[in-house]
C-alpha cells in the first residue's frame, strides 16, 4: 500500500499535508498567528470579509491578483 499523504511540520507551528492522490494541500497554522496573517490564506481572524485585502488595505477583486 502506497502512502498518499506527505506531511511537513515546522517548529513554528505550520503543518502542510499534500495528498498525492487527490492533488490537494491542507494548511494548518498555530493559533498563535491569530490576527497576524494576510495573503492567499486570508487574515486568520474569523472575518471572511477581509480575507482578500492587500497589505495596502485595498481589496482584491480577483483571487488571481493575490
Automatic annotation (TrEMBL):
<dbReference type="InterPro" id="IPR001846">
    <property type="entry name" value="VWF_type-D"/>
</dbReference>
<feature type="signal peptide">
    <location>
        <begin position="1"/>
        <end position="17"/>
    </location>
</feature>
<keyword id="KW-0732">Signal</keyword>
<dbReference type="Pfam" id="PF00094">
    <property type="entry name" value="VWD"/>
</dbReference>
<protein>
    <recommendedName>
        <fullName>VWFD domain-containing protein</fullName>
    </recommendedName>
</protein>
<feature type="domain" description="VWFD">
    <location>
        <begin position="1"/>
        <end position="66"/>
    </location>
</feature>
